[in-house]
Amino acid sequence: MDDVAALLALTAAVCFALAATLWQKAALNLEGVSFRHPLSFAVLLGQSVWLLGLLMQIVGVALQAAALDRGRVSIIQPLLVTTVIWALPLGYFLTHQTVGRREILGAAIIVVGLVGFASFGDPAAGVDDASNADWAIAVILIGLACTALLLFANRGSLSTRAAVLGTVAGMLYGLSATMMKPVVENLHTDGLAEVIAGLEFWIWAAAGIVGFLFQQLSLSTGKLVPSVATVSVANPVVSVMLGALVLLERLDREPPWHAVVASASLGLALLGAVVVSSAHEKGRDDIVPEPQLAPA
Known about the structure:
Elements: H1 3-27, H2 39-44, H3 48-70, H4 73-76, H5 83-94, H6 101-120, E1 123-125, H7 132-150, H8 158-190, H9 192-197, H10 199-219, H11 224-245, E2 250-251, H12 256-277
């Protein structure tokens, strides 16, 4: 694994965690955001804390693009699971989220899993782009999966809502991240004008923007940990799947046990994220966070 690419991905994860925490902090000052009230999204633009979060998100995306420029999607994207780890202390200090033993245990599992994945995971093949038909099939399948999840978005507790909306956002981010690979590669070879004229650019932009909106809805529930955890799990899962199926990426099988250990380690890291996202005491899930001072 390229050490520079890994460092860029980990730094991007820090930026994404800080962005999510700042966005949640801003959302706690409001009654909530909803697609039924589009102006509720515009109100966020008047929040300096939210704008700072947007800046950190942009920096994170730039670092993610730089990492993908140096490495494969199936290697870089799983490192973004560390977003969950960074979100724990940030949520504790900035939005007074509870961090218990289960959250700490989940974070430790993530670290162990990612260390194993980084040590033994190495891309052995892959292409930088795919046909329009392959991308169209990927978009349709992701769209259908997101639609199915949204049928359950308004059921259950606030944590469940945060998790479902976070999963939708993570899936769209995963699609966007996979599309970022050909966009960055084509930028080197064809120039900006050709890239903007290409299908990949518009899929990348649309998936990223819609994912961003669903993440705002998820964070507006006040449940930072399940929101960040589900985004951080769904993102690499979709990216790895699309990287394997569309970009033909695979782990190095020489020696064969390296691929086995790397796959198991990635599964362990994702399990740790699930542990973190499910770490909530009974009765806390339906408590809406007490708003802070109303914005001027």
